[in-house]
Amino acid sequence: MKFPPLTIRAAAKTDLWRKPPSTDVDNAPTVLLSTPIDLHKFHSARVTVHADWTTLYDQGGLVLFVPDEDVTKWCKTGIEFVDGKPVVSTVGTSRWSDWSLVPLPASAGGKITVQVERETKNGERVESLWVYIVDTETGEKTGIRELTWWFRHDILGHEKIEKDQIRNLLIGVYAARPTVPAGEGKAEEELVVHLSDFEVTLFDD
Question: So which domain of life are we looking at (predicted)?
Fold first, then answer.
C-alpha cells in the first residue's frame, strides 16, 4: 500500500510521550490508516520525513499503536531536533517510554527515510520490531533499534496465538512540537512536517 505525500502541522506543546511518575501526553497530530491492520499480517512501513527543524524536540515520522491489556503501547521514529541539530529519534512505549538517538548523516540535510519491519528467522515471524534508516539510492538498510517485545501478543512459545486473541495495529505518520519556539511573536508558530513515500506492506497470507 502506497500513499500520496502529505503535510502535518503541529502547534507548540504537542507531544507523544509517557514518563514516570505521571506524564502521559498524547496530543500530537497524527494521520492514521483508517482501517486497523491485523498485527500478525504486518510486515513493514516506511516514510521519508523532512521539515525546517528549529525548536528543541521538533519531530515527525512514523507512528504505530497497539492496544494492550491495560494500556496502549506505541512506537514512533523519524527526525527530532536535539542539541541544535536534527537526529534520528526512536521512542518505544509500553508502560513508559524510552528514547534513543542516532546522528543524522551530514549529507542528509534534515531529511531521512525510516522503516519499521517485523523480524523473521528461517521464514518465520518472530517477536521483534526493527527500526532502520534506509539509503534510498542503494536500498541499503541500517538497523538502529530493536523492540524485542513488540509482537509478544502474536507469539506464545514460538507458536501463533489463537485467532480470537489477534491484536490490531494502528499505523500512520505524525508531527509534534513539544517546546514553545523562542523569540518575539514566535509562540504560535507551527512546525510544518513533510512526509512522502509513505508505504505499508503486509505478509502474503
Answer: Eukaryota
What CATH number did the domain enclosing 130 receive? 2.60.120.200
- Tens-digit pLDDT profile for residues 11-31: 999 999 999 999 999 999 999
pTM over 0.90: yes
Measured between alpha carbons, how far is 145 from 142 in angstroms, rounded to an integer? 9
Q: Is 1 a member of any domain?
A: no
* 34, 153, 192 from 127: Cα distances, Å: 25, 9, 35
User: Is there a domain that residue 196 lies in?
Assistant: yes
Q: What is the dihedral of CA 171, 92, 115, 36, to 10 degrees?
A: -10
> Total structural domains in the chain?
1
Phi and psi of 158, rounded to 5°?
A: 65, 20
Please write the tens of the pLDDT for every residue from 132-159: 999 988 999 999 999 999 988 787 644 5
On whether the CB atoms of residues 187 and 70 are closer than 8 A, the answer is no
Q: What is the pLDDT of residue 155?
A: 74
- In the numeric block, which cell numbers belong to residue 58? 521538533
